[in-house]
From TrEMBL:
Binding positions (heme): 370
InterPro entries: Cyt_P450 (IPR001128), Cyt_P450_CS (IPR017972), Cyt_P450_E_grp-I (IPR002401), Cyt_P450_sf (IPR036396), Cytochrome_P450_fam2 (IPR050182)
Family to which the UniProt record says this protein belongs: Belongs to the cytochrome P450 family.
PROSITE patterns linked to this entry: CYTOCHROME_P450
An MF annotation (GO) of this entry: iron ion binding
Protein name: Cytochrome P450
Gene3D superfamilies xref list: Cytochrome P450
Organism name: Strongylocentrotus purpuratus (Purple sea urchin)
Length: 424
């Protein structure tokens, strides 16, 4: 296939089919390309031209400095098929232009700003923690409980109500949402729509739904509701699931987390978001979990809205641009021993202050970064600190090791595992 002039280097591609990757995990395949062709490479898949960004410098130049030309979202064919008039009705994640601007403002004003995480949300975790205690340290799969807890927190924050964990409608909608992330599907389940209608009944979102329907279809509104859940449910559940697994594998880190919680919070009350500045090791541990196993190893695809340059290369209009977050988080130029789990890398020399690193970007960067980033960070902090304040996590005796590779999909949770939660 003939390549446009001055395009980033990349492998030869078969006509029509394009390039075939050898690796089963696409983020690792992109890293292999970077080793051969450099941090900015190009590749064809079918009729599409992709440019892959594999280092911090290229991502910052493209997504921040030239963000206005990289802010469009490429809408894959299966999503266009599943969403009538996709350019207008694709909600926040997949929309572009004015629809994206308007819906992003709607999302921010009606949820993240209006309903911040508070101590009240922390108190609602009591029921969930009681369920874990009732298992008396027997091996369990934490994913189901984590998904229920995170989804219910979002329901509380955004819609002002909660559901019992055994509510059939709640469980059905939750499973439908998880399937979307684990299979990269875009189709909205009728179960999610049904629960969404029930949730917003009698809340301020009833009026908002009516107002937004003047400019967008109701399908768009249900997709925005799904984005509410996506911003804080799957992300937080995956982060917490990795945190439990890593701290079970690294018991010395788990002990340091619990010692800090005991010293700052004690056992007489639950941790809340106001404790965060005084829990630097807990904060650093969560950051290290999100670095070494980002929820989305590869950020959602961008698309160039004009011909634009990155360094010495020219990226044609309409090119699909893939930020490989995994590559940045495991770049030895940015991190010492990047494949080693080490929360201390985010702490000052005296261990009292969290140190930021520009190469830490689990929520991507630029205009199309995760708009629920603050919500996800706070929710992850609440779950993490409440869990490790009350439980010690160990792998079952018959399962002393576990794969840390991850399950590929739109998000990357751990492969299914069992854990023993022993009350402290």
């Amino acid at each position: 296939v003939r390549r446009p002039k001055n395009l980033p280097p990349g492998p030869w591609s078969l006509p029509i089919i394009g390039y075939r990757f050898d690796s089963g995990l696409i983020h690792e395949a992109f890293v292999d390309l970077a080793r051969k062709y450099g941090p900015v490479s190009s590749v064809r898949r079918g009729p599409f031209l992709f440019v892959v960004l594999n280092d911090r410098a290229s991502m910052k130049q493209a997504l921040v400095k030239s963000g206005e030309f990289f802010s469009d979202r490429f809408v894959p064919g299966h999503i266009r098929w599943g969403i009538p008039d996709a350019e207008k009705n694709a909600a926040i994640v997949w929309s572009n232009g004015k629809p994206w601007d308007d819906q992003r403002k709607f999302f921010a004003l009606s949820a993240l700003v209006r309903r911040a995480l508070s101590l009240r949300s922390t108190l609602r975790l009591v029921i969930w923690l009681t369920e874990i205690k009732a298992l008396h340290g027997e091996p369990m799969d934490p994913s189901a409980l984590l998904n229920k807890a995170t989804a219910n927190i979002i329901v509380q924050l955004v819609f002002g109500r909660r559901y019992e964990y055994d509510d059939p409608e709640f469980i059905g909608a939750l499973q439908a949402m998880v399937d979307i992330f684990r299979t990269s599907s875009c189709l909205i389940s009728t179960t999610i729509k049904k629960l969404s209608r029930k949730i917003i009944s009698g809340t301020s979102l009833t009026r908002i739904a009516h107002d937004i329907s003047k400019d967008y279809s109701m399908d768009t509104f249900w997709r925005i509701v799904l984005d509410f859940f996506a911003a804080g449910t799957e992300t937080t559940a995956v982060v917490t699931s990795w945190a439990i697994l890593y701290l079970a594998v690294y018991p010395d880190v788990q002990k340091k987390v619990q010692n800090e919680l005991d010293a700052v919070v004690g056992r007489g009350r639950q941790p809340n978001t106001s404790d965060r500045p005084n829990l630097p090791y807990c904060d650093a541990t969560l950051m290290e979990v999100m670095r070494i196993r980002p929820v989305l190893p590869v950020a959602l695809p961008h698309m160039t809205s004009a011909d634009v340059s990155i360094g010495p290369y020219t990226i044609p209009k309409g090119t699909i641009v893939i930020p490989n977050l995994w590559a940045v988080h495991h770049d030895p130029k940015e991190w010492c021993n990047p494949h080693l789990f080490n929360p201390d890398r985010f702490l000052s020399a005296d261990g009292q202050t969290v140190v930021k690193n520009e190469a830490w970007m689990p929520f991507s960067i630029g205009r199309r970064d995760c708009l629920g980033v603050q919500l996800a960070k706070m929710e992850s902090f609440l779950l993490f600190t409440n869990l490790f304040q009350q439980f010690e996590f160990k792998l079952p005796p018959d399962q002393p090791t576990h794969s840390m590779r991850g399950h590929p999909g739109l998000s990357m949770p751990p492969e299914s595992y069992k854990i023993c939660a022993i009350e402290r």
